[in-house]
Amino acid sequence: MIIQGMYGLGDNFYQRAIIRELGPVSLYTPWPEIYADLPVRCLKPQTTLRTQKKHIEKSNFDNFRPSGIKKRLFYDQRGTIIEALERSIGVKNANLSIKMPRLGLKKKKTIIVRPCTVRAEWPASARNCDPKYLCQAVEALKDEFHIVSIADLEDGKEWIDGDAPFAHEKYHAGELSLTDIMTLLESSAGSIGSVGWLLPASMAYNLPMLCIFGGWGSSNCPERLFDPRIDDNMIVKAMPDNFCMCSRHDHKCDKQITNFEKYIHEFRSIARIGYKA
Predict the structure, then answer these.
(1) Which of 137, 202, 142 is nearest to 168 (CA)?
(2) Claim: this prediction has a pTM higher than 0.90
(3) For the chain: N or C, fewer Cβ within 10 A?
């Protein structure tokens, strides 16, 4: 089977659940590392997307040139992302999983932070949380945990949205490979960020996450992002008081979160368990 996959990093963590069900397949994806443990021939896709193109140039792909009918993974606006991906390819399973294989790495007192960014090629500022909450969470945790901030910024193409949170280490120029990031995900005590690729990646590694919601709720609400079959018990969901269910990427959504401190406290408790285990 030849599959045209989605190209977003977060999309690939989600679609891993579907690819696992299909057996040996050929998959067009910019992120072959996500499927290294599966019987998947990862094929080199063509794209102009900046981060994906950079990663493709540094990755190894199968030179196999498939022929035949190509099926496409995508999602519509009905149900969860996982349910939509199932419909697109004709898969239905009550026990789907996005879990990634483990290397047996020891947990460290590290927290991964993903600052709010905006990309020129796909602007989604409405989805971002209010950056002040990222800063507040990091300030509350930086004396106990080692904060590592990761992004892939470039002038005029991707930039920080609002204030950047403090970090003991910053990798903001795409210095970390996906393998580096996956190692961090397995060995860290937790992660903090808004809705984006860090959310499904954290679920794939059973990593505690403080997920701070922003807006654009029609595409980024919990009912969309969390499927009952995918374990989200380690995700602390900090929701705005009046979560905006709009469908606009540039809407000025109300992102105010009352008593945000309680979410920080809940996340700290879960993150401590990981590195003390």
Answers:
(1) 142
(2) yes
(3) C
- Does 42 share its domain with 157? no
183 contacts: CB under 8 Å, gap ≥ 6: 103, 105
CATH number, domain with residue 148:
3.40.50.2000
Together in a domain, 207 and 249: yes
pLDDT digits (tens, 9 = 90+) for 160-219: 999 999 999 999 999 999 999 999 999 999 999 999 999 999 999 999 999 999 999 999
Residue 90 near residue 74 (C-beta atoms within 8 A)? no
Structural domains in the chain (count): 2
Instruction: For residues 133 and 255, give the distance between their C-alpha atoms in angstroms, rounded to a whole number.
Output: 10
99 Cβ contact list (under 8 Å, min separation 6): 204, 206
Q: Which domain holds residue 249?
A: 110-276
Whether residues 79 and 115 fall in one domain: no
